[in-house]
Amino acid sequence: MLDKNARLAVIGAGAIGGIVAAHLAREGWDLTLVCKHQEVADLANGPGLRILGVRGAFQQPVRAVANIADLGGPQDLVLLATKATEAIAAARELLPLLHERSLVVSLQNGICEEALASVLGRDRVVGCVVGWGATMLGPGQLEMTSTGEFVLGDLEGRPLPHLEFLANMLGVVVPCRVSANILGELYSKLIVNSCINTLGAISGLYLGQMLAQPQARVIFTAVMREALAVATAMGLKVEPGGGGKLDYHRFLKGDGLIDRWRRGLTIRAIGFKYRRLKSSSLQSLERGRPTEIDYLNGYICQKGAGLGVPTPVNLALVAMVKQIEAGQRKIAPANLGDPALATAGR
Q1: In a domain, 218, yes or no
Q2: What is the CB neighbour count within 10 angstroms for residue 76?
Q3: Comparing 279 with 21, which gets the higher pLDDT?
Q4: Which CATH number does the domain housing residue 80 bear?
Q5: How many domains does the chain have?
């Protein structure tokens, strides 16, 4: 049974992992943060992580190491907060440090839970939606950019007792609730990210600029249509997005002039509300780093291919992001009009 004396590790000292670790340490949790870079580990061990943003500012020392192997012994609970692209490698390295009842909570963007379960075992993996925003300002300097919630759940939907313990623990950061349909919750966030994050990555635009363009709104809708078609084929109930405010099926209902006008107005409203939001995938590309596209639109494409559901718009977006990553395409607003995305208007 988990308690506050559990051996706890947070792997990943980026925006999400660092902020979570700092808040937990501030509340007295005994944890070790795996930072990847010795410079960040030294900062965490010394003056501490500097946390800024919507929940206030504070500086918090956190016991930290640079490598997973440095954790030393078996871990009862791990919060895995690496980038999705690094999660599976981290899970393989972590495996020798887990015992039969160890738990690993996935804090990635996209859906990594199934891939993690194939490495760690399905009973060890706890699904989690991170429904709040953060960014890294510099080594050891992290900003919470928006409030929101965590959503936790067992991959089989079981009401296991450790979920309430985890919800109370993560609740020191932001409110946390338990869901019996965690894959449907994760897929809901994946749809939003696949619409917004990826279009921001190929266009280089802030969200407000991007969604003011008619073609971007058309592509946004097409990505969502394909994603829901795949979910239906999977037998997956997709939970409403936007904090429970956006019912995707209702949003896509109808194809008349008024229906299209209603959808366009809703998308413009999203763009206005989050007009200064910059895609995290775009930020990765600007830093010369790979995106999490394989766990966003790529996940939709992979599931669609296995179920015989066509996903041409998502496939085109994945290809375009891969081309940008390889230096074969420039980030530019003109990418929204690429002929490969022409099927979005049909």
Answers
A1: yes
A2: 17
A3: 21
A4: 3.40.50.720
A5: 2
Q: Is residue 136 part of a domain?
A: yes
* 147 and 15 in a common domain: yes
Q: Are residues 260 and 201 in the same domain?
A: yes
Please state the separation of Cα 143 from the chain's center in Å: 16
The 10 Å Cβ neighbour count of residue 93 is 15
What stretches of the chain show up as alpha helix (H) in DSSP? 15-26, 38-45, 84-94, 113-120, 161-170, 182-203, 207-211, 214-234, 248-252, 257-273, 280-286, 297-307, 312-325
Among 147, 180, 213, the domain boundary falls at 180
pLDDT over 80 at 203, yes or no: yes
232's tokens: 């239906």
What tokens appear for 46 in the block? 């010394």
Q: At what angle do helices 257-273 and 214-234 cross, to 10 degrees?
A: 100
Integer CA distances (angstroms), 256 to 214, 253, 261, in order: 17, 9, 9
Instruction: Please indicate, yes or no, whether residues 341 and 199 belong to a single structural domain of this protein.
Output: yes
Amino acid making up residue 189:
K
List, for residues 59-90, the tens digit of each pLDDT value: 999 999 999 999 988 999 999 999 999 999 99
Last residue within a domain, chosen from 180, 208, 231: 180
Structure tokens at 112: 């990594």
Q: How many other β-carbons are positioned within 10 Å of the β-carbon of residue 162?
A: 15
Domain hosting residue 287, numbered range: 184-345
Q: Are 211 and 343 in contact (CB under 8 A)?
A: no
CATH number at residue 189: 1.10.1040.10
Please tell me whether residues 70 and 159 are part of one structural domain: yes
**pLDDT at 18 exceeding the cut of 80:** yes
Which structure tokens are listed for 35? 């930072």
> Do 170 and 208 share a structural domain?
no
Under DSSP, the state recorded for 241 is B
Closest by CA position to 187, among listed 163, 158, 153: 153
The CA distance from 77 to 162, in Å, is: 11
Place of tokens 């107005």: 265
User: pTM to 2 decimals?
Assistant: 0.93
